[in-house]
Design a protein that fits this description.
The complex is a heterodimer of chains A (351) and B (264).
Chain A (H helix, E strand, L loop, with lengths): L2 E5 L3 E7 L4 E8 L2 E5 L2 H9 L4 E4 L2 E5 L1 H10 L7 E2 L2 E2 L6 H13 L7 E7 L11 H13 L2 E7 H9 L7 E6 L4 E7 L2 E8 L3 H12 L3 H10 L12 H26 L6 E7 L8 H12 L4 E7 L1 H4 L8 H32 L1
Parallel strand pairs in A: 1-9, 9-10, 11-14, 14-15
Antiparallel strand pairs in A: 1-2, 2-3, 4-6, 5-6, 7-8, 11-12, 12-13
Helix pairs in contact in A: 3-4, 5-11, 6-7, 6-8, 8-9
Chain B lengths: L2 H30 L8 H26 L6 H25 L8 H42 L4 H16 L21 E2 L1 H5 L4 E5 L4 H10 L7 H37 L1
Helix pairs in contact in B: 1-2, 2-3, 2-4, 3-4
The chains are: A alpha/beta (351), B mainly alpha (264).
Pfam families (chain A): Volactin (PF25216)
InterPro entries (chain A): ATPase_NBD (IPR043129), Volactin (IPR057363)
Protein name (chain A): Cell division protein FtsA
Chain lengths: 351, 264
């Protein structure tokens, strides 16, 4: 069965088709926490069914639980990925990502099962090279028996959210480490690039401006922040709003510059926004306001909420994995149709 | 090309064009009045002065277009201006002596004056053209190498682009490069929970209709009985039927009106 995988800086999410008309998502936080090993600690973790790895005299607690322990023990969280790619500063990044991918993806039911993975496009504002990250993630999934294809994260958003517009529009994924943007016309990317700024950049800037710990800024940003017109002087919310606005302006400026280099066709381009950092209340309205002011060289018809965001209870963070799943299912159908055609031709020749 | 050179080029073009027009006007005038040795002196003077001024202006225009600002540009400009002044002085001198003093040695002075002016102008244009032809290849080499200054970032991006293309499965020039993954030799020991429990999953109702649409968009093919195709066909059929009904109605109305008119 075809699957889609979103390997993000903050979350690794797998999407597969459910038994009825449904999608099944498996999500794991892409983070871990180093702790001292001990029999008591291990027993406690085993009893609580918490995921961890044991190495000599240290324990690495994985996923969402790592965040909980980080708050309890006031220790910094370790991240296998930084700015959208495998972190070169983290020695254990690849084994950790491998474990998380194996956990959410599972082994392929049959060899050659189709899988599409989202990867970041080349950044326009940094020397980061995405090739190593892409090939490593591809290799890890192939090891599990999958026939893997890589697509740009922005294109995954287009596949997931702009089906009603014939896959024409701008797909934006505002992630933790990076922001990926793809302008597509009839499912074909015209412009695809990334920006080495995302939710983490906002957290870092706010933390350095206000002197508050990054973890606390992240927590406030995720749980207690709304775009308002007024904030208290010196409030963290005010600083978050300021840096959110700076990020939005930065994204739109780069989009404008890239569009001026390309020759987009004369069509209506709706904008679909996904990714964990677009969850903030009022983000889309702010984005819509800024993009209207930008006077882009394409005709922006509307700024669209992801279908998961509009339903309320669900999360725009799933849109990328969903886009990857759509790509896999399409490939699967195409391969099926092709093999059927080949069989038909063979049968006709035999007759 | 700098603004100054551009202006000089356009000015030269204008002067060249006006010179050509004046020369043609002079020749045209000569043909019109059927110019002969016995013609009226005014006709002879008008024709030759128009042709003379026109020719000088044409050469001046060529000089302005072809010359560039070079280390020796000053001498070239002096030669150009002197040539033009001499040739125009020749024409003025012709107008002064033609009727009363069209004899030796005045006619010889005139020939020397005009010929030296024309020689200076044409020689200067020729020299500039030759220098331009000789100088162009070396100049092109130097400008092409100096204008393209690649930054380190540009080079890295180009390398990355080339590598990505070479590793891509769509690229037919290179075979795809796959990283192999050996079995772990890391000392990580996953806990029991990895094996004893399954990853928590959430199920969301979703028809994933985009998959079919994506295939249609990418291939441009639709299956028989496709919902979108059927819907469009029905709409088209309805529109056509409606149009037919309207036409029939209008034909019937015409007949009705004609019939009523005849009855009246």
């Amino acid at each position: 069965m075809a699957k889609g995988l979103d390997v993000g800086t903050m979350n690794i999410i797998c999407a597969e088709k459910g038994k009825s008309d449904s999608i099944v998502f498996a999500q794991q936080r892409n983070a871990f926490l180093k702790m001292e090993a001990g029999d008591l600690a291990q027993n406690m973790l085993d009893t609580s069914k918490i995921l961890y790895t044991h190495q000599n005299d240290t324990i690495n607690v994985l996923g969402e639980d790592a965040f909980k322990f980080a708050n309890v023990f006031n220790k910094p969280i370790r991240r296998p990925m930084r700015q959208g790619i495998i972190s070169p500063d983290e020695k254990e990044s690849i084994p950790m990502i491998k474990l998380i991918i194996e956990r959410v993806l599972n082994k392929a039911e049959k060899d050659g099962e189709l899988l599409t993975i989202s990867v970041p496009a080349s950044p326009v504002d940094s020397n980061i090279n995405v090739l190593y990250h892409s090939k490593t993630v591809e290799a890890l999934s192939k090891k599990l028996g999958y026939k893997t294809t890589l697509i740009d994260e922005g294109l995954a958003v287009v596949y997931s959210e702009l089906g009603d517009q014939n896959f024409t529009g701008v797909g934006i994924s505002v992630g933790a480490g990076m922001t990926n943007i793809t302008v597509a016309y009839l499912a074909t990317p015209i412009v695809s690039f990334s920006i080495a700024r995302g939710g983490d950049w906002i957290d870092e800037q706010v933390a350095s401006a206000t002197g508050v710990a990054i973890e606390r800024v992240t927590s406030i940003k995720e749980n207690d922040f709304t775009f308002n017109s007024e904030y208290e002087i010196g409030s963290i919310q005010g600083a978050i709003a300021l840096y959110y606005d700076a990020l939005i302006t930065y994204i739109i400026e780069h989009l404008k510059r890239k569009l001026e280099e390309a020759a987009p066709p004369d069509a209506e381009f709706p904008v679909a926004i996904a990714g964990g950092s677009s969850r903030a209340k009022g983000f889309l309205e702010m984005f819509e306001k800024r993009i209207t002011e930008a006077n882009l060289s394409i005709n922006i018809s509307k700024v669209k909420k992801t279908q998961y965001a509009s339903s309320g209870a669900k999360d725009p963070v799933y849109a990328i994995a969903r886009g990857c799943l759509i790509s896999s299912i399409t490939r699967e159908n195409a391969e099926k149709a092709e093999s059927e055609e080949v069989n038909k031709t063979k049968n006709e020749e035999n007759k | 090309m700098s603004m100054d050179l551009k202006l000089r080029y356009y000015l030269g073009s204008m002067v060249f064009l006006s010179g050509l027009i004046i020369s043609i006007a002079g020749i045209g005038f000569g043909i019109f009045v059927n110019l002969m040795w016995t013609s009226d002196p005014i006709e002879i003077m008008t024709t030759y002065s128009l042709v003379g001024i026109g020719f000088s202006l044409t050469l001046l225009g060529i000089n302005l277009m072809i010359s560039k600002q070079r280390p020796y540009g000053l001498y070239s400009n002096i030669a150009m201006v002197t040539g033009f002044i001499l040739s125009i002085a020749g024409v003025i001198y012709f107008l002064m002596i033609f009727q009363d003093n069209w004899v030796y040695p005045y006619a010889t002075y005139l020939v020397i004056l005009y010929a030296s002016g024309i020689s200076l102008l044409s020689g200067n244009a020729f020299a500039n053209a030759v220098l331009r032809v000789i100088g162009e290849p070396s100049e092109n080499l130097s400008t092409s190498s100096s204008n393209k200054n690649y930054s380190l970032e540009d080079i890295e991006k180009e390398v990355e682009k080339t590598l990505s293309q070479s590793y891509s499965t769509n690229n037919t020039n290179f075979s795809s490069f796959d990283l192999g993954v050996k079995e772990d030799d890391t000392s990580f020991v996953p806990c029991k929970t990895f094996k004893s429990t399954q990853q928590e999953r959430i199920e969301v109702e979703d028809f994933i209709s985009e998959a079919k649409n994506l295939q249609t968009t990418m291939t441009g093919k639709v299956e028989a009985g496709d919902y979108g195709l059927e819907l469009t066909t029905k709409m088209l059929s309805e529109t056509m039927k409606e149009k037919e009904r309207d036409q029939n109605k209008s034909i019937f109305n015409k007949f009705k009106t004609k019939f009523n008119n005849k009855r009246k």
